[in-house]
Amino acid sequence: MLEYLQDREKQIVTKGKDAHDVEGGKPSLSGSVSQRACVFCGSRVVLYPIADAVHLVHGPIGCASYTWDIRGALSSGPELHRSSFSTDLREKHVVFGGETQLYQSLVELIDKYQPKAAFVYSTCIVGVIGDDVQSVCKQVAKEKNIPVIPVMSEGFQGSKKDGYKIACDALATLIGTDESLDVSPMSINILGDFNLAGELWILEAYYKKMGIQILAPITGDGRVKNIQNAHRAALNVVQCSGSMMHLAMYMKETYGIPFIKVSYFGIEDMSDALYEVAKFFKDEAVMDKARELVKDQLKNLLPALEPYKTALTGKKAAIYVGGAFKAISLVKALRLIGMKTVIVGTQTGNTDDYRLLKTICDDGCILVDDSNPIELSEFVKQTGADLFIGGVKERPIAYKLGIGFCDHNHERKMALAGYEGMLNFAKEVYETVSSPVWQFVHRTSSEKN
Ligand code: SF4
After folding, report:
1. Tell me, what's the pLDDT at 69?
2. Can you give the CATH number for the domain in which 277 is found?
3. Do 311 and 435 sit in the same domain of this protein?
4. Pocket of ligand 1, candidates 45, 58, 88, 124: which has the most ligand atoms within 8 Å of its Cβ, to mutate?
C-alpha cells in the first residue's frame, strides 16, 4: 500500500534512509486531510488568553466553537476570555451585510463587561461579503475610548500559521500605547507561553528567584496594560517561535528589543532558558542565582525520574505537534526517560527546523511535515510506537491503534513546563504507556524495522 500521496514525498524523510531534507512550510496538499487548522483558529489561540479583553468572533456561530474549553488558558485575575462571543451571522446578514450587527454587538459587550480592549475576529464569510470590519472597530474605539482591534483572520486565507502572523500584527497595534507601569532594568517579556495549565506561573517563580521581572506575558495570563507597556522590556524571550517570531522581529526592528529563542520543556532546555537570560544581563549575581536554582531543582528531580526511566527504557514514541521547537525539546525529554523517538512531525516547522530535528533523532526515525491521520496511523503501525504525543486531533489516532497518548497541546490540564513539568511528563507517559487497558485492545502492527 502507498503510505502517502506521491506529491508529499519531499515532506517525509526516514533518517538514515533518505538523503533529502524535509520540505517544511508548504501549503497543504489538496486531497490530504491536513491536521492544520484555519487562519482564524491560529489568530484566536494566540490572542484569546488576554484575559481582560472581549474576544468577539464576527461570523456564523460555528466558527466560535474554538472557545476556552478547547484551549483552557488560565488567568490569575479576570476571566473575560473564557466567554465566547459571536455576532452569529445568518443568511440575512450574508445578503444585506453584517456591519450593523457587529457594531451593536461590540457596543453591548463593551457596556456590559467594561473590557480593557476588544478583539474582533473576521471569519471566512466576512471576507466573502466584504464587511468593513476596520471602520466599525475604529468607530467603536472612538466612541468607547478603548482599543478595538480588528483581526483580519478569514479562515480561507491560508493555514493556522498565517493566523499566528495576523495575531502578532494585532498585538503590535497595542504595544507601545502606554508607559504607566513600573519597569525594572532586569525585565523580560515572555512570548509564546499560553499558560494552558499554569506553566507561566512556574516560569514566573524561577525568574523571580533570579531577580528578573516578567513585564508582559504574551499572551498567557495576559493583560492589555502589560502588553501596551511591553516595548519597555530589556529582552524578549520567545518560546513558541512558530507563533511569535514575527512579533519578536517586529519589536526588535521597531523598539530595538533583542530576543532569544528558548524552550521550557525538559531539563536541558529549561536550564538553558534560565542561563541564557542570565547571560544576557551580564550580571554574575543573576547567573549565580540561576545556577543555584538549577542545582536545587535537579537534586530532587533526577532521583525522582529514575523509576520512570527504568520502566520506560526501550519504549518508542511518536510526536506530532504544532511547532518544531516543542518537538525538539520532546525528543530530548523522551531520551532522558529512556524512550526513543520513532516518528516526529509538526504542523508549522520549516526546512531548517527539520534539519535540526534530524540531527538529534536516531536512524530509522520518520520525520514528517503537515501530516494527516492516514499517514500517522500507518507510521505508528510501521514503527511499533508505544506512545503518541500530540493534541486533540491525534488523541483518537492513538486510542484507535491501542497505544498510550500524552496531550501536549490545547487540552492539557497538568503543567509540563519546567522541572515540575518534567516530572509530571514522566509520570503521565509512564501511566499511559503502562496502562493495563491496552491488553484489551487489538494492536495492529506492520513493523518493518
Ligand atoms: S475555516 Fe472559515 S468558516 Fe471554518 S472555522 Fe475557520 S473562519 Fe470559520
Report:
1. 67
2. 3.40.50.1980
3. yes
4. 124
Beta bridge partners of 150: 120
Residue closest to 309 by CA, chosen among 429, 438, 406: 429
* C-alpha of residue 123 to centroid of ligand 1, in Å: 6
**Residue bearing the bigger pLDDT, 359 or 242:** 359
Evaluate: CB of 158 within 6 angstroms of ligand 1. no
Minimum mean pLDDT range among 31-35, 226-230, 299-303: 31-35
Say yes or no: 251 and 196 in one domain.
yes
For atom 6 of ligand 1, the residue with the nearest CA is: 155
Query: Who contacts 325 (Cβ-Cβ below 8 Å, separation ≥6)?
Result: 239, 240, 241, 242, 261, 263, 353
pLDDT > 90: what percent of the chain? Answer: 83
Q: Are residues 56 and 120 in the same domain?
A: yes
Q: Is 38 in the pocket of ligand 1 (CB under 6 A)?
A: yes
Q: Is the CB of 37 under 6 A from ligand 1?
A: no
Average pLDDT over residues 258-264: 95
From ligand 1's centre to the CA of 60, what distance in Å?
Answer: 9
* Residue 82, domain extent: 39-162
The single residue listed with the C-alpha cell 490545547 is 410
- Is residue 40 in contact with ligand 1, taking CB distance under 6 Å? yes
Residue 39 CA, ligand 1 centroid: distance in Å:
8
Question: Taking all residues of the chain, what is their mean pLDDT, rounded to a whole number?
Answer: 93
- Pair (57, 23) in one structural domain: no
Distance 40 CA to ligand 1 centre (A): 7
Burial class (CB in 10 A: 0-12, 13-18, 19+), 439: exposed
The mean-pLDDT minimum among 208-222, 308-322, 397-411, 432-446 falls in: 432-446
What total of structural domains would you count in the chain? 3
CB 59 less than 6 A from any atom of ligand 1: yes
Tell whether 89 and 114 lie within a shared domain. Answer: yes
Residue from 87, 123, 133 to probe ligand 1 pocket by mutation (most atoms less than 8 Å from CB): 123
- 167 falls within a domain: no
Other beta carbons within 10 angstroms of residue 215's beta carbon come to: 24
Q: Which of 223, 338, 202 is nearest to 273 (CA)?
A: 202
Q: Are 21 and 55 in a shared domain?
A: no
Cell triple for residue 155? Answer: 479562515
- What confidence category does residue 447 fall into, taking pLDDT thresholds of 50, 70 and 90? low
Both 109 and 196 in a single domain? no
